[in-house]
Amino acid sequence: MKYSIDKEEKYSLIKIKEEKFDSSVASGFKSDLVTMQAEGVQNMVIDMSDVKYVDSSGLSALLVGNRIIGENGGAFIIAAPTEHTEKLIKISQLDKVFDILPTVHEAVESVFMHELEKGLGEEDDSE
Fold this sequence. Notes:
7 strands; 50% helix; two-stranded parallel ribbon; five-stranded mixed beta sheet; alpha/beta
């Protein structure tokens, strides 16, 4: 699967560079997400602006990423989905599961807000 990873201090931006996010690429992507999480990636932004088609295997890979990052208190955000991708996510009612934002910039800002809120929550716990 073709994608790029931009690792920043607080998050990793993963830009999927495939028009079809289907069974032919989803299992490899799922494995890579698990590996990245195991290597310490706390927050992920998935840029889906190039994806024109996604099937159940692609959605499954995204669900795995959402689960493993969420279990560790991280943010998993889908950014810039195409109209078709967003429609399929809504039909599958996964828009209630995923954080979906229209731009990568907004997704990155959301990660920083998540980190800020998490930090404030930790302060409250220590009092």
